[in-house]
Design a protein that fits this description.
Length: about 300
């Protein structure tokens, strides 16, 4: 058994699914917690062996400040929302003490690390609040300051062609844009849930285009109401066809809706994601008048 094969069975590595209350839903993430981070090549090899869309590697800095890096099977990403939520829940319960297969919850007295943490990421400092609500551990991340920039029409046309989407199928109330809250995502709103539910795309073609323009995912959405959005997130640059829950893209969407004046802050909404994939996920997004966007959820332990 090689070193990485041993590492992926190591007690320092936990497997959780974020934005769900059961192991069959949500987005799986690896969470590796130790006194020091492995070297970059080892982290990449572990993430590839784990095979989830991201694995977070966490080490202490000072007090409640922690260093964190995120790796997909194909490369490092600057920020990952669902792995951050998974990290918060794992830290709260004590990653070595949690029982596999249990809901990441329980009585308040069973938690070991609830509180406010500062995570030092490649995208900047992210605040992470971990709490117990009704006996269940929940985590809330506060993103770095969101920002947006226009998408070139020619690039948008290329993306739509690779998605097999037509411009007439878009929701003109939410114009396509590039949105950032730790990583860049291209937000495209469909005019109907039927359009969103049909996702067949040119994997290699979209991957090459996204790599060239340094996009982490596409944030494909349909707005059911002011309080509910549905989302799907192609992630070919990470070697994954689709992400079932994408916290970084959720924060980017919230920042875009506020900064473009499409919704009046403060406001909140839920994102339902992963349902068509059979991994239903629920993300809560709270958008203040200014500053970073809050994204909340729980997590559950998964089997090895």
């Amino acid at each position: 058994m090689n070193k990485v094969s041993k590492d992926v069975q190591d007690s320092r590595l936990q497997r959780l699914s974020a934005f769900t209350t059961h192991a069959e839903g949500g987005n799986p993430a690896g969470v590796w917690i130790d006194d020091e981070l492995p070297d970059t090549s080892t982290m990449q090899a572990i993430a590839k062996a784990v095979g989830y869309s991201e694995t977070a590697f966490v080490a202490p800095k000072h007090g409640y400040e922690k260093q964190i890096r995120y790796f997909s099977p194909l490369g490092e990403v600057p920020f990952c929302g669902h792995a951050t939520i998974a990290t918060g829940v794992a830290v709260a319960l004590g990653q070595r003490g949690a029982q596999r297969g249990d809901q990441m919850g329980g009585e308040a007295g069973q938690t070991e690390g609830a509180g406010q943490y500062t995570l030092s990421t490649r995208a900047g400092d992210v605040q992470l609040q971990v709490s117990v609500q009704n006996g269940t551990v929940r985590a809330t991340l506060t993103s770095v300051l969101p920002k947006q920039k226009e998408i070139e029409p020619a690039v948008l046309q290329q993306v739509l062609r690779l998605l097999n989407w037509d411009a007439s199928e878009l929701d003109c109330r939410i114009p396509p844009t590039l949105a950032f809250a730790g990583a860049w995502h291209l937000v495209i709103a469909a005019s109907s849930k039927a359009r969103l539910d049909q996702l067949e795309y040119d994997f290699e073609g979209l991957k090459a285009l996204m790599d060239f323009h340094q996009l982490t995912t596409l944030q494909l959405v349909w707005q059911e109401s002011d309080a509910v959005f549905h989302a799907r997130n192609p992630f070919p640059v990470g070697g994954i066809v689709e992400d079932p829950a994408t916290g970084a893209a959720a924060a980017a969407l919230g920042g875009y809706l506020r900064d473009a004046g499409l919704m009046t802050a403060p406001f909140s909404f839920d994102i339902r994601q992963g349902e068509v994939m059979g991994r239903p996920s629920l993300l809560r997004v709270d958008v203040p008048v200014e500053g970073g966007v809050d994204v909340s959820g729980g997590a559950v332990m998964m089997g090895g």
